[in-house]
Amino acid sequence: MATVIIALVSEQRMQNIIPVFQDGLGFARVYLVRSVDADQPGSKLGRALADTMEALRACGVAAENAEPSVDAYAVEAARRVVLELINRSSPPAPVVNFTGGTKCMSIGAFLAARDAGVAALYVDTANERLIWFHPDGTAREEPFVLGGRLGVEVYLRSYGRPVDGSRTRKHAMPTEAFDLADELLAWWPGCLPTLEKLGDAQSQGRPHVAASELDPEIVSLLASYGYVAAGSNVAITPRGRPVLNKGKWLEAMACALLRKSGYFDEVRANVCLRGVQNELDVVVARNGMVAVLECKGGLLGGTGTLDRLQAIRGTLGTFVRSFLVTSRAGGEVPADFRERAGLYGIRRIVTAEDFLQVADIVREGMRGGP
Prior knowledge:
Layout: E1 4-8, H1 14-21, E2 29-33, H2 44-58, E3 62-65, H3 75-88, E4 95-97, H4 103-116, E5 120-124, E6 129-133, E7 139-143, H5 152-158, H6 165-171, H7 175-184, H8 192-203, E8 209-210, H9 216-224, E9 228-229, E10 233-236, H10 241-244, H11 248-261, E11 266-271, E12 280-286, E13 289-296, H12 302-315, E14 320-326, H13 335-343, E15 346-350, H14 358-365
Parallel strand pairs: 1-2, 1-4, 2-3, 4-5, 13-14, 14-15
Antiparallel strand pairs: 5-6, 6-7, 8-10, 9-10, 11-12, 12-13
Helix pairs in contact: 2-5, 3-4, 7-11
């Protein structure tokens, strides 16, 4: 079993991180070969190199910067650097991951592997597979088997956006909110009018809602969790405010569905990132990809909602997918809003009719290219 992998630095970090987590490979050291562009102060490639090394080291993997850097379009220079790394590595023979870098660097790395008689590897992130090229000229594919080890925090750290633990804990919903969400799903979509009226009252500063306007079964369920005080008028309790606030109950219900599906390596709610003001409502990780769900109970939030999702997509790399989840029916989503969402790269607007299938929608929407 190889313990060393040689990889080419890329702005898309996952292709250099995924093999480290693949079941049965056991890479303990990564040599990162960079182009001279990464040596420029403040360059995107320089940040990618630093982020990749930080993410690997945080996972207990020794990450080293290979010297010297190479011209991005010099095939022979890349071949020489990779070949030198192969030759000085102790047995067993290292693996060459030629997925990153420029095409010229990739060719050079592949040629070095061929010349040295070692295995080369291509990481096809979009199709969730590793493609191996063996010294005898044969090739084989294997699916990603990451065992849930490549979670949300690893992905975010690899893009220089580690989780802000103190803010995330501060914004976290109580554990029982997800138990409540699981029970509320049995009443979907009939629970929506009651939840939205309570959310409206809270956002407008009204102390209570007339019981006659609410579904008594939903009120009884909320009261059993201590989230409302029932009577002729129904008031949200201090305990219920963080959950019955607009959109929070929808986040909890989305999390309940995503977790129960078993499709994802990790599902997180209310994630705050260092250096990013807005929290991420729901984040899921699956096979080296991440999806971010913005949840809107009631109003859609206009273009500001779409702007936030577009900003996330620009910050977290090619393999982040964004979705908008709304409690509104499909017919209530304006056509121009849908069109703009498509232009912003949002994979799907999940409406009330589709909500119970949100896990299937997200899993399918994470597949394929950007």
